[in-house]
Amino acid sequence: MGSTSAQNPENNGSAGVGRRDLIKRSAALGLISVPTMSFLSACASGGGGGNGDKAKEGTKTAKNPLGVNDTAQMEFVLFDGGFGKEYAEDAVKIYEQNFPKVSVKFSATQKIQSTLQPRFNQGTPPDLIDNSGAEQMDMGVLVGKDQLADLTPLLDAPSYDDPNKKVRDTLRPGIVEMGQFDGDPVWIMYYAYTVYGVWYSQKALDSLDATYPETWDEMLAVCEKAKKKGMAGWTYAGKYPYYLPFSLYPMIGKVGGTEVLDAIDNLEPNAWKHPAVKACFEAYYELYKKGYVLKGTPGLDHIQSQTAWAEGKALFIPNGSWVENESAKVIPADFGLAVSAPTGIDSSDKMPFGTIWASGGEPFIVPAKAKNTAGGMEQLRVMLSEASSKNFTSKVKSLTAYNGGTDGITLTPGLKSGVAALDKAGENVVNPRLQDWYVQLQKEKIGVSGLGEMMAGRLTPAEAIKKIQGFADETAKDTSIKHYKHQ
């Protein structure tokens, strides 16, 4: 996935900004992230202090506002996922042009945690990390154990393009708040901007003489039409079923209101037993019971399920906007790639059709114990320039955190559809925070052990809800985990 990102997902938790206020400022476009192993052992040492090998501070100038040491090596480790690595390599070249005495040590891997966990333990992490993918490190744990540098110096630095404008003033609404957990420090820079939802082929939908369903009865009717023509209604990343929340969570918000999602994020007792959760779980389970899910889906990974979908074997797939780039080689030219906000239950839903999940994705971090923290932040400052943003959008079909960078770019079908979905949503944009605050709970427990088992037919909705509530309660009671709440 791109970030699986969700690539990470508006009230931004501990930022002290109300969800409604943030939503009003957050109608911008863009994943996240995939399963993770526990990172608790990796962060046992805690503490944000430096080590003896810290690079000496350079001279601050108009062109070097962060005071980067112009002879100190900078190391950058990128997640090698749906967005590829070319955009980052291009940004590295700019860094090296600006600091000609420096050679950036750049690498890309899909195994972020297993590659970097030993280095965090040793106090020798890289200077900049794209913390994404199946082995994403648990962001809540990293913050709670003081493993990350506060990015406020970057945000308060002059922007790359305009010295009279701070970096923070060039970002899309909600990006800064997403990187906050407790108070003012900003620990994460979400570089991509992701639209999550139900992705489909407009050509396939037209072939069924159907429109995108707004109620669940309409969804079942469309899936039945597809089934009669030999096409499954749905598929998903069966091996990584935490992709299901990309459409399921905003559906829960639509049916029950944002307060249901807030309660879930806050780990409140019985939050998962809300009638809206029950209704949505039962709706998804009905897809399985009626045979509308592509046969063999529980055994497919994200690439396999996306390929089957692109080949017309299934009509709908829950995903993030990185899917357009990640599946570019298998999506036919006349596919008519489109995304929609999730289908609701009926007219009794609390929020209107169009309610969607959109947020920052592809989380970049600068470790507190990195040798060259200023260099890591400067690389991000370069990436948040208009030119680098345009380069990213052109190459990977997704927007960035930079609020602009689309002038002169022809939007691809998926990107254009994502913009239209956000326009339709207006203020009705939700941003669940579980995937940021409690990665292991979200992916391994809720995703794999809960939703994955239910959609494979091994748990009923009631059993899945009971199991997931148990997982949430365990996390809430675990004093070794730092807990976060919407303010």
TrEMBL record:
Record's keyword annotation contains Membrane: no
Stretches the record annotates as Disordered: 46-66
Major localization listed first in the record, in broad terms: other
Highest taxon above the source species: Bacteria
Localization per record: Cell envelope
Record key words, sorted: Signal, Transport
Family indicated by similarity: Belongs to the bacterial solute-binding protein 1 family.
Name of protein: N-acetylglucosamine/diacetylchitobiose ABC transporter substrate-binding protein
